[in-house]
Amino acid sequence: MSDPIRLGTRASPLALAQARLVAAALEAVEPGVRLEIVEIRTTGDRRLDARLSGAGSGSLPRGLFTKELEEALLDGRADLAVHSLKDLPTDLGAGLVFAAALERAPSGDWLLSREGIRFEDLPAGARIATSSERRRRMLLWRRPDLEVVEVRGNLGTRIRKLATEPEWSGMVLAQAGLVRLGWVRAPGRVAAEGFELHAEDLGGWMVPAAGQGAIGIECRAGDTRIHKLLGRAGHRETFACVTAERALLHRVGGGCHQPVGARARVRDGGLELEAVVFPEGDGEPLCGVRVGDPADPEGLAEALWEQLHEKN
Fold first, then answer.
1. Of 31, 45, 118, 263, which is most buried with the most CB atoms under 10 A?
2. Whole-angstrom Cα distance, residue 210 to residue 238?
3. Active site residues
4. Same domain (yes/no): 72, 29
5. DSSP 60
6. Signed CA dihedral, 52, 56, 62, 63: sign only
């Protein structure tokens, strides 16, 4: 009997839910395969006092949720690593590859609130919580009269903070995590941690992070068996979309916390890539959309990057 395939994952409820989805996808293409989930604590899980975004001595490094997972791949404790793909830097560790992605969940961002007030109706000075520099910049680009505050912790912790912090008017979270945890009970309603909250989809104007909503799977470059298995279990359209998004992010030079939005979609046989790239410091973002060949997502990202700079 062959050794089990070990799936390395963070230990948060969302990460474990995503690992179970990967296990189910592997079992679907190879019935009877033996699997083992290996829980690993990362720097981001330990450093709850530090900032996720921005610069300075109090901020966390790139790869804060992935470094220890990659180390487990390289030293043989895990055979593949399961990531929220938006957390995975574009420059992987030597000898590792981004091998597959499961079919993407909705990739947009939601504004959660206690009272159900819509984003455009928020009063000047309203406090909105987020952990993302991209979301902060987009919120203030759209509504410079708001105050954006930082929040840390897993999704359950964040939900409790919003429900019990009277000075916060709302919080922006990725829709995909709320869906995967089973917390979306009805359109526009989220029930979690004993609280019920209203949800507004900001996806019409808030461009998500590269890879947001997708579960990415990383493995050792030379592990032929795992690579082939992941190729069968993954979702090709999602892989093309997130490859374009990540290629653009790499071209910009951003890690998972840079203020860059990238959204790719297959439409009418073509691959459409939309980008919003904020400069360092203050200033208006570069925005653009381009359509290319789904078979060449990297080429599409390069063409869009050149288009953005032609405008500048």
1. 263
2. 12
3. 87
4. yes
5. P
6. negative
